[in-house]
Design goal:
The protein is of the alpha+beta class. It is built from eight helices and six strands; from the N terminus they run βααββαβααααββα. A hairpin with a 2-residue loop joins strand 2 and strand 3.
Length: 254
């Protein structure tokens, strides 16, 4: 008889469980989903709100997800060590992506699917660099989304607008959006330009027998540039709160 267990050739692929990791989930066929759900372009608050709900659900479970950075149809889930399931990549990607997909689907009342990948993090500087890279992509996404909307409102199809914008620099996109829509992209809501963060924060609760520190889930719709000094301080506070680089992780009830 065939040893089918041995055919699971990727099941033993693992990452070191004692270092932080990021699982990035990305929406699959979200352009079609946006049309079927009737999401407004260039941005519809329902989408990030559904992703915030998914992030909060993951963080409320007994999983070391201590921060979620989301924009457009992607989210980066930061896991503090010890990484669950002994760092098994198949388990990390499948469970976190499926949970995220399930909550978003329930929130928008339409089947939504997210794929996933694992990014290894060795030190704080790498994590700040990674998050800054994704935030740069959030800004490019905002520029392109508004520029596409501007051309579509002038009668172009989405395909025609995409071809027209291919290779155009950010200054051109700024001017196009201001000329066609009268919108200064530097003034649009912060979550559209920079994304949103869901994180663990330490709060002090007063009770009959004194004060106690607890970790609660906080949603930040107004976040700084991660590459700026303010942004680095903001991220460092999150890392320290959840012991991302100390090897202690978070407590199950955190």
């Amino acid at each position: 008889m065939i040893d089918w267990k041995r055919r699971e050739i990727f099941s033993n692929l693992m990452i070191p469980p004692d270092i932080p990791a990021v699982v990035r989930v990305d929406g699959w066929r979200f352009r079609r989903l946006a049309e079927e759900v009737g999401l407004e372009r260039p941005f519809d608050r329902r989408m990030p709100e559904s992703m915030v709900s998914a992030a909060k659900e993951l963080m409320s479970l007994n999983l070391p997800v201590v921060m979620v950075y989301a924009f457009s149809d992607e989210a980066s889930l930061l896991l503090a060590p010890p990484v669950p399931w002994n760092g098994r990549v198949e388990k990390l990607v499948s469970v976190l992506s499926s949970l995220f997909s399930a909550v978003v689907s329930l929130e928008i009342k339409h089947a939504a699917s997210f794929d996933g990948r694992v990014i290894l993090i060795r030190e704080e500087g790498e994590l700040v660099d990674y998050l800054s890279w994704r935030q740069d992509e959030a800004w490019r996404n905002a520029l392109n989304s508004y520029a596409l909307a501007a051309l579509e409102r002038e009668g172009m199809t989405r395909g025609e607008a995409a071809r027209e914008l291919r290779g155009k620099k950010s200054d051109y996109l700024h001017e196009l959006v201001f000329e066609k829509l009268g919108i200064n992209l530097a003034k649009v809501p912060t979550w559209q330009r920079r994304g949103v963060v869901v994180r663990k924060s330490v709060v002090i609760r007063k009770g009959e027998h004194g004060s106690a520190k607890r970790k609660e889930i906080v949603v930040d719709w107004e976040i700084p540039l991660f590459s700026s000094p303010e942004g680095r301080r903001y991220l460092r506070e999150i890392f320290e709160t959840s012991s991302v680089f100390s090897g202690k992780g978070i407590t199950p009830d955190g």
